[in-house]
Structures are given as structure tokens and as C-alpha cells.
Design a protein that fits this description.
The chain is α/β, with parallel strands linked by helices. The protein has a single domain (15-188, 244-307), classed as Rossmann fold, CATH 3.40.50. It has helices at residues 15-36, 89-95, 110-117, 119-122, 137-145, 167-175, 187-194, 203-213, 218-222, 244-258, 290-307; strands at 46-51, 58-63, 80-87, 102-107, 130-134, 152-158, 179-185, 223-229, 235-241, 261-262, 267-270, 276-284. Strands 1, 4, 5, 6, 7, 10, 11 and 12 form an 8-stranded mixed sheet that branches. It has a two-stranded antiparallel ribbon with strand order 2-3. Strands 8-9 form a two-stranded antiparallel sheet. Helix 1 (15-36) runs antiparallel to helix 11. The protein binds S-adenosylmethionine.
Length: 311
Amino acid sequence: MSTKMSSVSHSFGGDWTLTKLQILSKYLKAYNVALDGKPSLDRPFRRAFIDAFAGTGYRSVGADLPEDTFRPSIPELEIVDTVRLLDGSARMALMVEPRFDKYIFIEKNRDRCNELSALRTEFPDRAASIQIYEGDANEEIQKLCRANWAHHRAVMFLDPYGLQVDWKTIEAIAATKAIDLWILFPLGIGVNRLLVRDGNIPLAWRRRLDSLLGTTEWFDEFYKLETRNDLLGTDITQITKQGIDCIGQFFINRLSQIFPGVSRNPAILRNSTNCPMYMFCFAVANPNGVKPAMKIAGDLLKKVERNGTRK
Ligand SMILES: C[S@@+](CC[C@H](N)C(=O)[O-])C[C@H]1O[C@@H](n2cnc3c(N)ncnc32)[C@H](O)[C@@H]1O
């Protein structure tokens, strides 16, 4: 792992950041080893890594709040004084051996795109394979997914701070039948914070949840009407918010409706007070690749389950 100082500070996450990047990096290696290790097939597919919320290539531990965090107050992402730069997902992917044929980095922030471009100098043997798209991840992914995937395979990493991913994007990824998807789902840091206790959710927040989950059915799953008698024997109906597990299960079930393979044991990434912040999920779009991909991902996720978030 390398460290450096940078003019474009990019700070995010807690210990969960390391956990998800370790899982991703190990998966990328195993994926390329598995696909490289079939000489008789003579590498029939071109392989890409697609990082759709790519950042800068580095992650700084400390410094500023992400500018596009959905809710204003997220103590787990607060300012600290010391800044250390460690490898982010883009660098980690570039270091993986065997290598990918192509690296596609999507990032909406121009300064961060410029930082990503500098990776071409750092990795000269991969420079020609690096493509950087400055733009919105949902738009760029949906465009990419409309291409002909017959001779291409990819691992995609969706690593938003919050609720930026649209369900339409996830559907487009599934429709390629060629992409293995790792997605960071904003369980406690995003969805649970919008589900106000009395169910009276502001319309803009409801719409955002509809786009994230691709349905309005979530409301009846996350809130239950319960009737009980009061002291005078009168029926009282009250709305009860369900636990955070229910949100995670709902998203895994939604993925299972469109992907032929979905890990049922996603990594629950917790903060220092053990609250679930994110859920790191894995889904396979290629029906022929389900078995090996699920085995590799399942083993990596089981290790997190056994060791806890901070391993
Ligand atoms: C958590 S950071 C990504 C970190 C990176 N994956 C890593 O490990 O180094 C999220 C990034 O997504 C970018 N971003 C936010 N909304 C976006 C969008 N709609 N489209 C593309 N990038 C976006 C932010 O500028 C930020 O750099």
C-alpha cells in the first residue's frame, strides 16, 4: 500500500472503507486469475474493471466532508486534522495481477478526474488501457451497458457516498449478462435516516427511495400498521417502523429479481459504535459465471462475517 500527499483532498469513510476495498481487491485478483487460467479458451473475453464513483485513486484518512453527502449531519464522516493518503479503488485495481484489459473510471468531479489522469503516469504499462469519463455515473453506466457485451466481461464497483445510484442503472448492469457487480448500499447512512419514525416521509425523500429501490413497494415493507386496544378498549392503529435488517433484506431480494446470482450474506459495514452504515453486496449478471463468481465472493464475505468489520 502506498501513501502520498495530494492537492485534491478526498476523504471518506471509516474502517468500512478498508474492509470493502480489501474484499474488492481480493475479488479482482481471483477473478483475473480464474479467467486467465484457462489457456485452452485463449482468453476469449476482454476484461474490464469499471469504477463508477472512482474518486481520485487515493483516499485520504481525515480532512473534509464529501460535498455531496445526502444528509447534512453524518458524524461518522466528520473532520479530523491529520490527512494520510492511502490507495483508493482505482489504484488498487491498477495494481492487481493478472491485469485487466481495460480500466474505466467514471467521476463527476473535474479535479478528481484530473487526479485520475495522473494514474497514467504512475502506471505507464497500463496508461493506454485507462479510460476516464467525467460525468454522472448513472448516465455513463447506462450508456456503457447498452453496448454489445458478447465478447466482454467486467467487474463493476459502485461506491457512492449515499443514495446516488438509480435502480435503472442496476437493471442496465443486470441486462448485460456480463458484469459482476460490487455495490455499496447505504443502509444506515442513507436509507434508514430517511425513514422517519412516524412514516411521514417528505415527498423528495420518498422519490429518492423510489429511484434507489425501483419501486414504491418499500413503504409497506418498512412500515407495518398495527392495531391494539387502548385502556378503554378502543382500537388504535399505529404505524411501526421495521428494523434495519428489513431494509437490507429488501434490497437483496430486489437484486435477486434481476440477477441470476446474488450473495445472501453481504458484508455489513459498521461504524465505531457498531451501527450498520453500509451493506456491501455482490451480484453476478452472467448466468454462466454464477457458480465460480459466487464461490469466490461468498468466501470473501464469510471472512468478514467471521472477523467483523474491522479486519
Ligand atoms: C466514496 S467516493 C469514491 C471512492 C473511491 N471508490 C475509492 O475507493 O477511492 C465517491 C465518489 O463519487 C463521486 N460522485 C458522487 N456522485 C457522483 C455521480 N453522480 N456520478 C459520478 N461520480 C459521483 C464523488 O465525487 C466521489 O469522488
